Amino acid sequence: MDKGIDxxxxxxxxxxxxxxxxxxxxxRELKPETGYTAEIGYKHKWFTKEKFTAYFDVAAFHMNYNxxxxxxxxLWGDSTRLNPLGVGFKPINVGQTKISGLDCSILTDxxxxxxxxxxxxxxxxxxxxxxxxxxxxxxxxxxRLDNLLQNFLNEGLIDETLLPLIEEITAxxxxxxxxxxxxxxxxxxxxxxxxxxxxxxxxxxxxxxxxGTHLHYNSFMENIDQxxxxxxxxxxxxxxxxxxxxxxxxxGIKRSRERxxxxxxxxxxRVSYIFTENLSAQFLVENAFNREYQIRPxxxxxxxxxxxxxxxxx
Length: 314
Fold this sequence. Notes:
Layout: E1 2-6, H1 10-14, E2 17-19, E3 22-24, E4 33-49, E5 52-66, E6 69-75, E7 87-93, E8 97-113, E9 116-131, E10 139-140, H2 142-154, H3 163-173, E11 175-176, H4 178-181, E12 196-206, E13 209-218, H5 240-243, H6 253-259, E14 264-276, E15 279-286, E16 294-296, E17 299-300, E18 305-312
Parallel strand pairs: 3-7
Antiparallel strand pairs: 1-4, 2-3, 4-5, 5-8, 6-7, 8-9, 9-12, 10-11, 12-13, 13-14, 14-15, 15-18, 16-17
Helix pairs in contact: 2-3
């Protein structure tokens, strides 16, 4: 069991970076993050037969954070020419959170005879990352929303007949809590987390040849910042951004997430040949089935990729 405190880097408190239509804002009022972690595990030699051994490993863990720091995506800045909405990322304290879970793995290693050797690791992780008080209001951007709305009215971007509807929307969105900033508050899952992950690394070799594969699956990222699924990035969503024709860029984030709701499965394959103790070559295929997947919203993973690597030691 460990306890700790994170005093943050100076970048969180003082860095400002303008990346055009999206900015990164500092927060000089950021509080240090404190918490504790606890873990208990058990490893058992499943069986041993001649030169073949298998292990079973299981561990339960729990993490608790106070004043957890989260890079929140929202209306944190003033309007500029390239960033009229003042949207960007800002580190803020979001209250108390907890992450509990279970990790299981099976490891094998052995000699199959006739110069064949095998090793593998199969693992599965379940996590339940949650906000302790999802209704806690930890910040707001009332003034920024009011100013933004007034600018839209002054520039004639919003029909005055829509004002009551927009004021109702802004009143709901201005108070920041876990629920109000989440794309899926019903999931009760912290943003940008996976609940289920599974991995398999398998390798078999004979003399100078080595064949291997790495398979990775993660479940759907159930919850992200609500702004990513708003009209700011999705033209089909009706809210203050689409009503004011203030769409930053129609990235189709909401549509793509709905299409990839089954999660991500990535398969990599490799073949190696060992010429000498100091010289080897490897051919690698990453994302072999050319699956479309998102590392995070609006960030697609790499397509199928081939590489040939020659390694030598002097």
